[in-house]
Amino acid sequence: MIPGTFKNTEGSFGPLLESSSMDFLYDHYRERVLAFDHPNLHQSPSENVEWLLDNLPKDRVHNFDLLTASRGGLVAREFIRRVASNDTKGRKITINKALLVAACNQGTALADPENIKNLLNRYMLMTSLIPIPMVSKILGGVLAVERGIGSAALTHLPGLSDLAARKDND
Q1: HEC string for the chain
Q2: Fewer Cβ atoms within 10 Å of its own Cβ: the N or the C terminal residue of the chain?
Q3: Which residues share a beta bridge with 68?
């Protein structure tokens, strides 16, 4: 399982983890279920896969069926590409199936710098609704600083820039 942006495995797959389907998956995979909670903003999908390959044991054969959500689909695509080109750092890896749910293969408008500013504006507005004035002012101030000087920095995070709308169809 490879979760999406701003989420961990529980956040992306919570309903599945709590359902009877998870019992079936544990039985089917004989309890060999791996959740890859990767850093998803300050690292690119390529860096995520690099870390995964570095941490998979070399002394066994790895067979994967992948289940991803959102940005996790980009990590899965990079993983599949590395396995297909036999660029696995000596690991023996097979990928049998991949299910990419809501993968942002063509990017997302959320990664556009102007949309990041708009999102921060909306969060600033929501902080004004917090009934504790001191908390509202502190959070609003933090978001104002981020909107004013930091939104440009957000677009330079490798994990976010990889989500920018893509013009190609690879």
Answers
A1: CECCCCCCHHHHHHHHHCCHHHHHHHHHCCCCCCCCCCCCCCCCHHHHHHHHHHHCCCCCEEEEEEEEECCHHHHHHHHHHHHHCCCCCCCEEEEEEEEEECCCCCCCHHHCHHHHHHHHHHHHHHHCCCCCHHHHHHHHHHHHHHHHHHHHHHCCCHHHHCCCCCCCCC
A2: C
A3: 2, 100
pLDDT tens for the chain, residues 1 to 170: 999 887 889 988 989 989 999 889 889 998 788 899 988 777 889 999 999 999 999 999 999 999 999 889 999 999 999 999 999 999 999 999 999 998 887 777 666 777 777 777 777 778 878 788 888 788 877 777 666 665 566 666 676 667 766 545 44
